[in-house]
Write a structure and sequence with these properties.
Elements lengths: L7 E5 L3 E10 L3 H17 L5 E12 L3 E10 L10 E4 L3 E9 L5 H14 L4 E9 L10 E8 L6
Antiparallel strand pairs: 1-6, 2-4, 2-5, 3-4, 3-7, 6-8, 7-8
Length: 157
């Protein structure tokens, strides 16, 4: 099935999250995220943080070998750091955004659509990107992931 991703420019507002920052080998996020999110959920069970249950991955920096990722969950109240679990925020500002419906293995198409949109619209990526995951469903067709890339200011020339 061919999936198209409608990309648009949005103004992203910061969202409070509880996260664990990690550096993982490129291509290993799917294998690594669980042990980092487990720490966030353990802090919630211990009463250190109130979560809203929505997972968010913030990709900060990348090299050819590794990626710095904040593995986060949205919060419903401010909190103090609890071990490796830090109070963080999603990036804010002008962003390119698309929604991916379906299995997570197809997220590369959503990312590619944003890169293509940026090229077609003369926009440059400013650095961080992030994925906001809808709540889990056993039916892959009901999975939703919103993908964002922070943009550099538009050229006025």
């Amino acid at each position: 099935m061919s999936v198209t991703h409608e990309v648009r420019a949005v103004m992203a507002t910061p969202r409070a999250v509880a996260g664990v920052r990690a550096v993982v080998p490129r291509g290993r996020v799917a294998q690594e995220f669980g042990r980092h999110l487990d720490q966030v959920y353990a802090a919630a069970r211990a009463g250190a943080v109130q979560l809203d249950g929505q997972n968010i991955f913030i990709y900060r920096r990348a090299t050819a070998e590794e990626i710095e990722v904040d593995f986060c969950v949205g919060v419903s109240a401010p909190f103090e750091a609890a071990g490796a679990v830090l109070p963080l925020e999603t990036p804010s500002g002008a962003a390119a955004m698309t929604t991916h419906h379906g299995e997570y293995g197809g997220l590369s198409r959503a990312n590619a659509a944003i890169h293509e949109w940026c090229k077609a619209h003369g926009r440059e990526i400013a650095g961080p990107s992030w994925e906001v995951y809808g709540h889990w469903n056993d039916d892959p067709s009901l999975l939703r992931t919103d993908v964002y890339y922070l943009l550099k200011p538009a050229s006025t020339a």
